[in-house]
Amino acid sequence: MLKYDIKDIKLAQKGKLRIEWAEMDMPVLRMIRERFKKEKPLKGVRLSACLHVTTETANLMITLKEGGAELALCASNPLSTQDDVAAALVKFYKIPVFAIKGEDRDTYYKHIYQALDIKPHITMDDGADLVSTLHKERKELLKNVLGGTEETTTGVIRLRAMAEDGALKYPVIAVNDAYTKHLFDNRYGTGQSTIDGILRATNRLLAGSIFVVCGYGWCGRGVAMRARGMGARVIVTEVDPLKALEAVMDGFDVMPIAEAAKVGDIFVTVTGNINVISEKIFSKMKDGAIVANTGHFNVEIDIEGLEELAKSKRIIRDFVEEYTLKNGKRIYLLAEGRLVNLSAAEGHPAAVMDMSFANQALSAEYIYKNAKKLEKKVYSVPEEIDREIARLKLESMGIRIDTLTKEQYEYLHSWQMGT
User: Distance from the CA of 369 to the CA of which of 44, 47, 182, 199 falls in 20 to 30 A?
Assistant: First the structure.
């Protein structure tokens, strides 16, 4: 009997249609699925996945199942689940899903435990909560695990810290490190979907507003680019001098967060770090400032500090909480400080997730085939996988590129020809 814990199985038909809509914009994953269906490279593999339960994730799960894997899926964030998609995966694709949008912390971790109950050979994570839970609380299952994959910057940071401490008990491929992931998913996906989430939640005009982006990694670059594209005046805050210099060269104002707090209308954190916007920073903000997070965890915003400053709060719109401070100023927190692009909108467009999830599928296959050769550390996606995904994406777009001539290849691989 199929085990699952979802909001409402009656939502399944709507979810199935949305899964099909996303699939049309995921040609690379479709090509991989067709091969997986024939070859069954994951036959006999038990795979536990902790990912955002979206239409794009659904297409990845379907691909992995076609490849022969036995699956269990839980959410990697309490607010990112699309309940109709969860229902469709259960009803039409017979995939166990443990995810409900808005679930509390206890339910969130109960669902992670349930996803681990299949005793996985491979883990697939987005934020490393599955891996950390497995290492801390389900250690008896570690003997089964061949390896894992990690989707996002935050998770890779956590896993590299585990590896450095000698705590990581199996190899993990950092999917986020793939060029076909972070150059596109992080930049174009996060950029568009974050703006989408903010606009859906607030319906505010970005043109002419002062938009503060905290962090100028690939995700921050994308958010800053898209905010400027909609007419906002963008300020970047950074702690890394190289990234700060790049932001300046890209034409953005750069200043400390304490200065930006005094002038900003909209703030977005995208650093992967804790308390980027602290109680001290909240107290400097203008009346009506809007604060959102698009990093993986809500720790980037000091919500407890905001609670301390506030004399009252209320829900004024879906995903918009108004905090009235003791000095009379109002601060608007979006989506409880969680990923605004997945909480208040639908997450990244399918076209970029196509490449990210192609990396996930091929990395899972790679782990299964090469597990005995891999050490207990974090690996980058093999270059041949990265390049193959880029090739397939170009092919699906009808774009052709040049190839090196024999003479050019020899020149690039020789030191003797010189000038």
Answer: 182
Q: Is residue 300 part of a domain?
A: yes
Identify the residue whose tokens are 């030191």: 415
How confident is the model over 28-78, as pLDDT tens digits?
999 999 999 999 999 999 999 999 999 999 999 999 999 999 999 999 999
Determine whether the annotation assigns residue 216 to a binding site. yes
- 59 annotated binding-site participant: no
| 52 annotated among ligand-binding-site residues | no
Q: Is 194 annotated as a binding residue?
A: no
39 & 177 share domain: yes
Number of domains in the chain: 2
The answer to the question of whether 81 is labelled as a binding residue is no
Q: Return d(Cα 61, Cα 98) in angstroms, integer.
A: 13
70 and 198 housed in the same domain: no
The reply to whether 218 sits in an annotated binding site is yes
Integer Rg of the chain from CA: 22
283-333 residue pLDDT tens: 999 999 999 999 988 999 999 999 999 999 999 999 999 999 999 999 999
Is residue 287 one of the residues assigned to a domain? yes
Is 133 part of any known ligand binding site? no
238 appears as a binding residue in the annotation: yes
Query: Does 177 carry a binding-site annotation?
Result: no
